[in-house]
Design goal:
By secondary structure, the protein is an alpha/beta fold. It has 2 domains: 295 residues, Alkaline Phosphatase, subunit A; 139 residues, no CATH class. Helices cover 29% and strands 18% of the residues. It has 13 helices and 21 strands. The strands form 5 sheets. Strands 1, 2, 5, 6, 7, 8, 9, 19, 20 and 21 form a 10-stranded mixed β-sheet that branches. The chain has a 4-stranded antiparallel β-sheet with strand order 12-13-15-14. The chain has a 3-stranded mixed β-sheet with strand order 16-11-17. Helix 7 packs antiparallel against helix 8, helix 7 packs parallel to helix 9 and helix 8 runs antiparallel to helix 9. It is globular, with a radius of gyration of 22 Å. The two termini are 17 Å apart. The mean pLDDT is 97.
């Protein structure tokens, strides 16, 4: 089977915007939808960039990878963490298997690819690159000079996108995106390839920076604001960029457009550690007078049973005797305490006393195994409509100001999947999983799923 597969990843692309609201404004995506299989793609838990793209490319869940977010506990101490970069992914990814099968691959911007590892082709790393001015971000290394001759100093991400200077953020998103697609076009034009994959992170950044300006249901929405059409205009710009890539693909090529999760308005944040302090689970030796990051507080671990982490979802840790250095929760009390926390957190209302629909999960109910240090519980506050704020010093248990900077959107559990190519029937599909993507791509090359892949080949017959 002499076919090629091209994957265009749009980090955080929201299915309701592409499939429904703006479908008539996106002619290139619409053409793929009209001639291909499409539908919402269920992400992993948690539905966040790290680890979702690595899960997609390995068809393994976060527990199997031991990656539960951007930062992870390195051990059961209280302060050691690691960033989940490419070295944290313990399993070969799709392009590694394809390379072993003799396929030439081009990989650009896929989260979790810094530092770059050798591939059977070309790789341009992702937003995890600390500073592309000094850090090597391509494989082979010589590709870096080639790209910078083409586009100038290469941008892997937008600086400080959780800030109030929206015009600067918007300008940088467009500048970055243009560089990414220019690099993609160049590689497609100058290299032989069997598998091409790029991920554009700008979709995620524009959602977090501008969602409140376009969504009338957002608490901060103002009718007629000057940024009302920013997200729609960017989607149209992306559609144009995708169209230029489609011109480089042939009739025998399979094209997949995919996102790792969707987006939804952020309703606020639950101050998880403030709640734990107020309810007697967590004790500080001194109380901050201002809002303070949890990792610089002085915790009295001898009086602390539970603490939490902030982020798009809440990670909750029990201070277990014999596991943590100063643990006080007896292992015999572990399950009862988890049950108590689940019940109380799921019943936590909003500031007006109304239920918000929080869901709290045990890790063993989500993942087949738990490599590394998994949270004892994970919380989707408001079923992901509310984020988790880990800082302390708040006046109450809720805040409407994100403690890491202005942020308008949270992550939704369903992303986008579109596939068009030879033999692919047209029409919508239900029940698609992010873990199905890698086995399906292998199937397009006539290769079976790799042993222990969790997803299924999407049946296109």
């Amino acid at each position: 089977m002499n076919r090629r597969v091209a994957v265009i990843g749009l980090d955080c692309a929201e299915p309701s915007l592409i499939f429904d609201r703006w479908i008539e404004d996106l002619p290139n995506l619409r053409s793929l939808i009209e001639r291909g299989t499409w539908g919402q793609l269920r992400s992993v838990d948690p539905p966040i960039t790290v680890p979702a793209w690595s899960c997609m490319m390995t068809s393994r869940d976060p527990g199997e990878l031991g990656i539960y977010g951007f930062r992870n506990r390195a051990d059961h101490s209280y302060d050691r963490q690691f960033v989940a970069d490419s070295r944290a992914v313990p399993i070969p990814r799709l392009w590694d298997h394809l390379g072993e099968a003799g396929k030439h691959v081009i990989v650009l911007g896929v989260p979790g690819t810094y530092p770059p590892a050798p591939v059977a082709g070309e790789l341009v790393s992702c937003f995890l690159t600390p500073d592309p001015r000094v850090d090597q971000y391509t494989e082979p290394a010589s590709l870096r000079d080639e790209i910078e001759r083409l586009v100038g100093p290469y941008q892997v991400d937008v600086r400080n996108y959780r800030r109030a200077d929206r015009d600067r953020i918007l300008s940088e998103i467009y500048e970055m995106t243009e560089q990414h697609f220019a690099a993609a076009r160049h590689l497609l034009d100058t290299r032989p390839w069997d598998f091409f994959m790029m991920v554009e992170i700008g979709v995620d950044r524009i959602h977090h920076a501008f969602w409140s300006f376009h969504d009338p249901t957002h608490r901060n929405y103002e009718p007629g604001n000057r940024y009302r059409d920013v997200i729609r205009n960017y989607y149209q710009y992306l559609d144009d960029q995708i169209g230029e890539l489609l011109e480089r693909f042939g009739d025998d090529d399979t094209v997949i457009v995919v996102s790792d999760h969707g987006a939804e308005p952020m309703r606020g944040a639950v101050c998880i550690n403030q709640w734990l302090i107020g309810e007697g689970y967590l004790t500080l030796r001194s109380t901050p007078e201002t809002i303070t990051p949890f990792d610089v507080t002085n915790v009295d671990w001898s009086q602390t049973r539970v603490w939490g982490d902030g982020g798009y979802y809440g990670r909750i840790w029990l201070n277990v005797r014999g596991r943590e250095p100063d643990g006080i929760v007896d292992p015999s009390e572990y399950e009862a305490l988890r049950d108590e926390l689940i019940s109380r957190l799921e019943g936590l209302p909003d500031p007006d006393g109304q239920p918000i629909g929080t869901r709290v999960f045990r890790p063993e109910d989500l993942w087949l195994e738990q490599r590394g240090v998994a949270p004892d519980l994970i919380a989707y506050f408001g079923n992901l409509a509310w984020r988790s704020a880990g800082s302390v010093g708040h006046a109450g248990y809720h805040t409407f100001e994100n403690d890491t900077g202005p942020d308008d959107a949270n992550h939704a559990r369903n992303g986008v999947f579109i596939m068009a190519g030879p033999g692919v029937p047209a029409g919508p599909r239900d029940g698609l999983s992010i873990l199905d993507v890698a086995p399906t791509i292998l199937g397009r090359f006539g290769m079976p799923p790799i042993e222990r892949m969790r997803g299924q080949v999407i049946d296109i017959h």
